């Protein structure tokens, strides 16, 4: 069986299994959004993040480098404790 978590996949391949059989077993499990690699569209899909805020997150990364922790997203103008509490279970680094 193949199980996908975010962008990670694991597979135990049995003898005689074909790619067609393997593809039929793929289960999609929504993962967290990596705030260091997410594009504008992925960031907009997060709760409470609109286009302007998503662009601020990207701009912050360009100026300051990658986020060192999930909490560091609070350094982006407009993301305070309340927004962070909404996001923390849906983001990763």
How do you describe this structure in short?
This is Helix-hairpin-helix DNA-binding motif class 1 domain-containing protein. The protein has helices at residues 19-24, 40-44, 51-64, 81-87; strands spanning 2-5, 8-11, 27-29, 33-34, 91-92.
CATH superfamily of the largest domain: Photosystem II 12 kDa extrinsic protein
Q: What coarse outline follows from CA principal-axis ratios?
A: globular
**Spans with pLDDT under 50 lasting ≥5 residues?**
1-11, 22-29
Distance between the termini: 27 Å
Order of helices and strands: EEHEEHHHE
Into how many domains do the coordinates divide? 2
The DSSP helix count reads 4
Q: Give the total of beta strands.
A: 5
InterPro entries: Competence_ComEA_HhH, Endo/Exo/Phosphatase_dom_1, Hlx-hairpin-Hlx_DNA-bd_motif, RuvA_2-like
Protein name: Helix-hairpin-helix DNA-binding motif class 1 domain-containing protein
GO biological process, one term: protein secretion by the type II secretion system
Pfam families: HHH_3
What does this structure look like?
The chain is of the alpha/beta class. The protein has two domains: 1-30, no CATH class; 33-92, Photosystem II 12 kDa extrinsic protein (DNA polymerase, domain 1), CATH 1.10.150.320. Helix content is 34%, strand content 16%. It is built from four helices and five strands. The protein has helices at 19-24, 40-44, 51-64, 81-87; strands at residues 2-5, 8-11, 27-29, 33-34, 91-92. The strands form two sheets. A three-stranded mixed beta sheet has the order 2-1-3, with no helix packed on it. Strands 4-5 form a two-stranded parallel ribbon. The longest helix has 14 residues, at 51-64. It is globular.
